[in-house]
Amino acid sequence: MLVLVAPGQGAQTPGFLTPWLDLPGVSDRLAAWSAAVDLDLTHYGTEADADEIRDTAVAQPLLVAAGLLAAHALGDVRPHTVAGHSVGEITAAVLAGVLDEESGLRFVRTRGLAMAEAAAVTETGMAAMLGGDADVVVGHLEGLGLTPANVNGAGQIVAAGTAEQLAALAENKPEGVRRVVPLKVAGAFHTAHMAPAVATLEEAATRLTVTDPKISYVSNKDGAVVTGGEEVIARLVGQVANPVRWDLCMETFQKLGVTALVELCPGGTLTGLAKRALPGVKTLALKTPDDLAAARELIAEHTGPAA
Question: For the whole model, what pTM was predicted?
Answer without folding.
Answer: 0.94
